[in-house]
Amino acid sequence: MEEQKKDNQLNVYLASPRGFCAGVDRAVEIVKRSLNKFGAPVYVRHEIVHNKHVVQELRDMGTIFVNELEDIKDTTRPVIFSAHGVAKKVVDDAKFKNLNYIDATCPLVSKVHREAEQLHKQGYHIFLIGHENHPEVIGTMGQINNNNIELIQSKEEVDTIKPVQEKKYAYITQTTLSIDDTKEIIQSLQNKFPTIKGPIKEDICYATTNRQAAVKLIAPKCDLFIIIGSRNSSNSQRLVEVAKKNGCTNSLLLHTDSEFPKEAILNSKNLGLSSGASAPEILIQNLIKKIKEIRNIQIKEVVSATENVSFKIPATLQ
To answer: Which of 2, 136, 166, 241 is catalytic?
Structure first.
């Protein structure tokens, strides 16, 4: 019997840091404090963060999620802008409609917005490295006149750009990209535009960097890697890619509608576990509980960095 248990042992490599980042923490806290201060309902434009579990929890507390400001039924209620940030036009529309709005944009996304504005004022043509239709990209591109900002999604797209002699060029990036892929795109831009200006401090945020670094450390040891996160979460999708690229081809995203990957777990000897920056820790703990039902597990936490970042809540909610 003891021998059977031993054969059934699964090594679980738990990535740290994982899960919530300071920007997500702040955004969720802003919604909760708004509910406390103003009562229900409060409106949130788009998902506050990309996680169905978090969105449902806030919905149960009295939050109404809308796609656009036009969808707000009661304009006397507060509206919160999501952590991904919004285009200038959204803020202008909120002011025009006389809405009481609270901005939960992650301060690290706001930094990229300010960079775009500054570069635009200085006469640069800006390349934004990011993913089309991601809310953060829409918000950043919406900070300035669209003719002066151009989305770049791959090295191949850089090859098609025709430089204009008299133009000054600069680049900024989405905060939740793959570190390695972005380096390659930046290198291509620098090869093509030797004088291109980049951010003083890179735009990919500390949380994305740290979570990818932890996955990189673990992936070579694993025959299965599970990332908990939503399908529309850019940073969660990138973690799956990083695990695959770094030695664990059998890597998957476990989202709300996923089935528990029982067969894969039963056939695994070394399992990597992490979660995207908008996935709460309870989802990891629930998954570990489920795995314990079918396997005898030994958890090894692998730490790539220690995080102690926190962002201030807007003064109106303190």
So the answer is: 136
- Whether 136 sits among the annotated catalytic residues: the reply is yes
Q: List pLDDT tens digits, range 216-229.
A: 999 999 999 999 99
Q: Model-level pTM?
A: 0.94
DSSP string, the chain: -HHHHHHTEEEEEEEES-S--HHHHHHHHHHHHHHHHH-S-EEEES-SSS-HHHHHHHHHTTEEEESSGGG-S-TTS-EEE-TT---HHHHHHHHHTT--EEE---HHHHHHHHHHHHHHHTTEEEEEES-TT-HHHHHHHTTS-GGGEEEE-SHHHHHT----TT-EEEEEE-TTS-HHHHHHHHHHHHHH-TT-B--SS-SS-HHHHHHHHHHHHHGGG-SEEEEE--TT-HHHHHHHHHHHHTT--SEEEE-TTPPP-HHHHHT-SEEEEEE-TTS-HHHHHHHHHHHHHHSEEEEEEEES-------PPPGGG-
CATH of the domain spanning 108-203: 3.40.1010.20
Q: Which CATH architecture has domain 22-106?
A: 3-Layer(aba) Sandwich (3.40)
Same topology for domains 2-20+206-303 and 108-203, yes or no? Answer: yes
